[in-house]
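Per reviewer request, we include the raw input and output of the structure prediction for the construct analysed in the revised manuscript.
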Amino acid sequence: MAMDYTKIGSACAGNWTALESQETSHWGKPRDFQVPIILTPTLFGSGAESTTHAVIYRDGVKYSMSFGATEKMMKVLIPELSESAEPKARLYAALDAVSQGVETSWAKSATVSSQAMALQGLRDVVIGFDDYVEGRATGDRDLYVSGASRIGESMNDGKTTAPHALSYFLTTHLKMAHGHACLLYTSDAADE
């Protein structure tokens, strides 16, 4: 959420209108960042540090704000920052990364390159999953971190699919951790 607000703040800098006053239909049109931003995640889930969109909730409804690809958005990946998080928080972030990697790889809007990027990221996430969740400082944990970020980058073309979008209902209305909700909906979709 902090990274999404940072993106929104950069895009609205110098011309700030409260989000509550903005017309939501305009949020889908890509906006340019006005000031440079450096995104440094402390948990590594579906790669928000790599996406050119932000999630916004208004009156319990989820919206996305889009941004143009730019050199003004940079990311710094420091795997050690996740070590202070609870194992449960790392698990939910990892479940989010796995479900996002699966969904982005088969999304209708995926391109050949975004699909390949999602699958490579998913492979790396699966290899490093246990070390990341357990907080072990290994090369596989670092592979997980770069894989999760790659999945986020693939989302710029591949986007999310219905199961991931539906998981937000559980997250907001039932106060369920997002990664847990993603797993439930993604596994149900795979069963069909």
